Amino acid sequence: MCMKMSHTINNIAITAIASALPQNILAVKDMGFGAAEVERIIASSGVRNIRIAGENTCTSDLCVFAAEKLFAAGNIDRSTVDAVVFVSQTFDYKLPATSCIIQDRLGLSTDVVAFDIAYGCSGYVYGLLQAAMLISTGVCQKVLLCAGEISTHFAYPKDRSTRVLFGDAGTATIIEKGAGSMPFHFFTDGSGSGHIIVPAGGCRMPYSAETAREYTDEEGNTRTKNHTYMNGFEILNFAIKEVPKSIDGVLKEAVLSKDDIDVFALHQANEFMLNHLRKKMKIPAERLPIMLQDTGNTSSASIPLALTLAVDSLRVQGSMSKVLCCGFGVGLSIASTIADLSETVILPPFDYTA
User: Fold this and answer.
1) Class of residue 323 by CB neighbours under 10 A (exposed 0-12, middle 13-18, buried 19+)
2) How far apart are CA 160 and CA 222, in angstroms?
């Protein structure tokens, strides 16, 4: 069963965005898959290097680092932040909520609203929705949205379908009252939930000696059930079929056309998929940045990370008053919105240091 929904929230502004990347860089050519295979992987995915969080680095570490840089550069008074929304599928613990840990580490007021959202590829837009709703209802005035992943910790070294693609990153975004409007559109199809999944570790399949055993699938990829499985063919089909519909849906909600959009900030899944979508929707290459070559697919962090990576060139080439953000993938889920980032403080990425 599928659900489609669109809605507009008024008087909202995204005022600042920052990102943090682990300093550890791993080249695809050094992953041990053979020269011919590496060449094929790079040609299709566009990924040459990924960023890898250290063994003791969590997603919250990257997000807190990005938030601290944001507070300093944007001259943001942290006492005015009254909500923390943490979006990730790689939490510090099963409990407590990572957002509570972030509140303490950033020295935010104990009066803040704090909660986690367990979402991946579409998670950043879901986080924007939650922030916008908190503000529009009057519950909050300024929301800190932290979105990030340490996906490499769940990519098995022998699994070329995930190992060569996923990277780690953390981001921080400030959303508050403003003059803008944000239209949203959503699509959810849980019948495809098994196409990107870490089977073990939850209540359905607890960790055990059995889940830690290696197995090899029909494509020759080896992993355990404690690690990420991805059916790339099914994800590609889903994205090609449904992402253009969601983008059309949010444009319809906003009463805009594709020609009105300055920047299409899409989830950085892989280069082949993004180029296929761009050509299918007849979007000029300069309006759809592809920025995953040296970071990989960073899941919930990929949209804000791409904006921080591309901001200089995007500012030079024209307006950012209409930026369409679309996240798609794990769930299966798609979330789209349009935001005015013309006055948003967007900082270049920072290298994380402990």
Assistant:
1) buried
2) 8
